[in-house]
Design brief:
586 residues, alpha/beta, 18 helices, 21 strands, 41% helix
Length: 586
C-alpha cells in the first residue's frame, strides 16, 4: 500500500469564517475519497491544498515520492492551441475525447470553446496523462449521461487514488471508499459511500441532540442550586459557581444552515393550456442540418418532464424554444394566457462581482434590504454576513444558488431548468427536489443527474438525431444501449423508444378535411390532458361541496360542478370523434 498524500492538522480560513481546521487525512493507492459539504465550506479550497496549488495557513502536507497528480479544477485553464494538442495527442487521448463528446472538435482552437466544452477537454487532459493520484472538482459537470457512465467505469478501473468533489450521488455511492464531510469548520471522515455518509450524519446529529438534552437537565439542576438564597450562595465554592454559570450560558452548536430550505412562493394558477409545440423544427444555420425536426411536445399544468440526450443533441435549444427565446423555423407553438415562464439556463448573465447579494436580490426596481427580500434570502440560506457579501467573494455554488433564487423570486408557474444541479451542494439539491415535488406548476428539466431525474420527473424524453422521443425502456436501459453502441462505433438507434410524434400521413376528420397523423395524435393528447385536469377540478369541488354548510356556498359550488360536468361531456364526445379519425388513418 503506497501513501499518495498525507495531510496533518490543515487549517484555512476566510475573512468571515473558518473553512476548516485540524483536518488530517491520508490517501493511499486504490482509495476513492469523496468530499461533501454545503457551498462555501471549503471543498474546492481543500482540493487545491491537497494538489499543492494553495498553501494552508497551518498544518503540513507530504506527498509520496514521485507521485504524479492529475488535478481538475472547476475552471481549469487550457494551454493555447487546438483541442488535440491541449490534451496531449495520441490515440488514447483521442479515444477519451470521443467518450466525452469532443471527437468532432479535435482541431478546434481552445479559445473558441464554450465553458462546458473547455471543462470536458480539461477532464480529458487529466485522464489522458499518467498520474497516481487524481484530484477532481465536479468532474461530471457538463457531461451527458453516457459520458458519466463511462467515467464511472474508468475511475472504477483506475489503479491509483482518487479524491473528488461531486454532487452526483450515484457516482459517490458507487465509487467512494471514504467520505470526508466539511461542516462549520470541522471535518468528519466516514467509511463507505454516500449512503454510509448519510447514516453517519444522522447518527451524529442524534448524538448532538442527546448531548444537548443532557446539558439542559444539568443546567436546570445547577440553576436551582445557585438560587438557594444569598446566604447559602456565599458559602459555595467559587469554582463550582463559575462552572455552573458556564454550563447555563452554553448554547448548542449553531446549525450549518438556520433551517430547511423553504422555497414557497405564491404561484399564479395555470389554465388548461400551458405550452404546446406541434411539428416544430429549428435550423440554426440555413445551410446546415436541423437541430430539431418535427418535434411535438404538450405540457399539462402538473407536467414533470425530464429531457436527456448526448451533448449537442438539441436539449438546450428545445428549452430555448419553449421559453420563447427563439421562434421555430417551422411548426406551431401555443402558450397559454396564464403562463409565466421562469427559465434557469446554463448561460445566465454573469453577476457583477462588485455588487452585493442584497442588491442582486432587490434588482433594479426595489430598495435593497426590505423585509420581503430579507425573508427571501433567509429561505436560500443567505444569512449573517452573506447578504452584504460581494458576488466576487461567493463560491461557484453560492453564485448558482443566488441565480436560482432570482428565477424563482419572479413567481413563475412554468419552470424550465437547464442542468440545475451543477455546482449545487447536496443539501441544496435535496431541498430543491423536495420543493419541486410539491410545487404546483409545470416543470421541464434538462439534467444529467440520475437521482434528480428519478425523484422529480414522471416521464423522460430523449433528444436524438434532431427528434424528441419518449423513453419507454427506462433511463438506465437507454444509457446502457447508447454506451454499448458508442463503444462499438455505431450510430445510436431508437429501438426501445416510443416517439412523442407520429409520422405524417393524411386522414379525414368529420368535416372532410384531411389532417396528418401528427395533428390527430396531438389533439388526442391535448384532450386527454384537459380531461385529467377537469377530473381533478371536479374532485376538488366535490370535496368542498361535501363540507359546505351555507346555502349560498352550496348553490355556487353546484353551479361550478355542473359547468365542469358539461365540459367533461363535451370533451369526451370530441375524444371519441378524434379517436375514430385516428383509427381510420392507420
Amino acid at each position: 500500500m503506497t501513501v499518495l498524500v498525507d495531510a496533518e492538522s490543515l487549517a484555512v480560513s476566510r475573512s468571515d469564517r473558518q473553512l476548516f481546521k485540524g483536518l488530517s487525512i491520508t490517501v493511499t493507492d486504490g482509495e476513492r475519497v469523496g468530499i461533501v459539504g454545503i457551498n462555501g465550506t471549503g471543498k474546492s479550497t481543500l482540493l487545491r491544498v491537497l494538489a499543492g496549488t494553495e498553501v494552508p495557513e497551518a498544518g503540513e502536507i507530504r506527498w509520496g515520492r514521485g507521485v504524479r497528480i492529475g488535478f481538475l479544477e472547476q475552471d481549469s485553464p487550457l494551454p493555447p492551441g487546438n483541442v488535440r494538442s491541449a490534451v496531449g495527442g495520441g490515440w488514447q487521448s483521442e479515444a477519451i475525447l470521443d467518450r466525452l463528446g469532443m471527437a468532432a472538435m479535435l482541431d478546434r482552437n481552445v479559445s473558441e470553446l464554450s465553458g462546458g466544452q473547455a471543462k470536458r477537454v480539461a477532464l480529458a487532459k487529466v485522464l489522458a496523462n499518467p498520474a497516481e493520484l487524481l484530484i477532481l472538482d465536479e468532474p461530471t459537470n457538463h457531461l451527458d449521461l453516457p459520458a458519466i457512465t463511462w467515467l464511472e467505469e474508468w475511475l472504477a478501473r483506475f489503479g491509483g487514488g482518487v479524491i473528488l468533489v461531486s454532487h452526483d450521488r450515484y457516482l459517490l455511492d458507487r465509487l467512494t471508499t471514504r467520505m470526508l464531510e466539511l461542516d462549520r469548520g470541522n471535518a468528519y471522515i466516514h467509511n463507505g459511500g454516500y449512503a454510509d455518509y448519510l447514516s453517519a450524519q444522522i447518527e451524529r446529529e442524534a448524538q448532538a441532540q442527546g448531548a444537548e438534552s443532557v446539558r439542559r437537565n444539568q443546567a436546570r439542576k445547577e440553576l436551582a442550586w445557585l438560587r438557594r438564597g444569598a446566604k447559602a450562595r456565599t458559602r459555595k465554592p467559587q469554582a463550582r459557581i463559575d462552572a455552573a454559570k458556564q454550563l447555563i450560558n452554553a448554547r448548542p452548536k449553531a446549525q450549518a444552515r438556520s433551517s430547511e430550505l423553504e422555497i414557497t412562493f405564491d404561484t399564479p394558477r395555470l389554465g388548461n393550456t400551458v405550452i404546446e409545440a406541434e411539428g416544430v423544427s429549428f435550423v440554426r444555420d440555413p445551410s446546415g442540418e436541423p437541430v430539431l425536426s418535427e418535434v411535438t411536445v404538450s405540457l399539462d399544468p402538473r407536467e414533470r418532464l425530464g429531457v436527456v440526450g448526448v451533448n449537442g443533441s438539441g436539449k438546450t435549444t428545445l428549452l430555448d424554444i419553449l421559453a420563447g427565446l427563439y421562434p421555430p423555423t417551422s411548426g406551431r407553438i401555443e402558450v397559454g394566457t396564464t403562463v409565466k415562464v421562469g427559465y434557469y439556463c446554463q448561460n445566465l448573465p454573469e453577476l457583477d462581482p462588485k455588487a452585493r447579494v442584497r442588491e442582486v436580490v432587490a434588482g433594479p426596481t426595489r430598495t435593497p434590504g426590505d423585509l420581503a427580500d430579507q425573508r427571501l434570502m433567509e429561505r436560500f440560506w443567505f444569512v449573517g454576513e452573506l447578504p452584504w457579501a460581494t458576488i466576487g467573494t461567493l463560491s461557484g455554488g453560492e453564485r448558482r444558488r443566488l441565480q436560482l433564487l432570482t428565477v424563482l423570486a419572479a413567481q413563475p408557474n412554468v419552470l424550465l431548468l437547464d442542468e440545475p444541479t451543477n455546482d449545487l451542494d447536496l443539501e441544496t439539491l435535496r431541498s430543491l427536489e423536495e420543493f419541486l415535488e410539491q410545487w404546483p406548476g409545470a416543470l421541464v428539466t434538462v439534467s444529467h443527474d440520475r437521482a434528480f431525474l428519478d425523484r422529480v420527473t414522471d416521464r423522460i424524453v430523449v433528444c436524438q438525431d434532431a427528434v424528441v422521443n419518449e423513453i419507454s425502456g427506462g433511463l438506465a436501459s437507454w444509457i446502457s444501449e447508447v454506451t454499448q453502441q458508442k463503444a462499438k462505433g455505431e450510430s445510436p438507434v431508437r429501438t426501445q423508444m416510443t416517439s412523442t410524434r407520429t409520422a405524417s400521413a393524411p386522414s379525414s376528420d368529420p368535416g372532410g378535411k384531411r389532417r396528418s397523423k401528427t395533428t390527430v395524435g396531438f389533439e388526442l393528447r391535448r384532450i386527454e390532458k384537459q380531461l385529467q385536469s377537469l377530473a381533478k377540478e371536479h374532485d376538488r369541488l366535490a370535496a368542498l361541496f361535501e363540507g359546505a354548510q351555507e346555502h349560498k356556498e352550496l348553490a355556487n359550488l353546484g353551479l361550478e360542478l355542473a359547468k365542469i360536468q358539461e365540459q367533461q361531456n363535451s370533451l369526451e364526445e370530441r375524444w371519441l370523434e378524434v379517436a375514430e379519425e385516428a383509427e381510420s388513418a392507420r
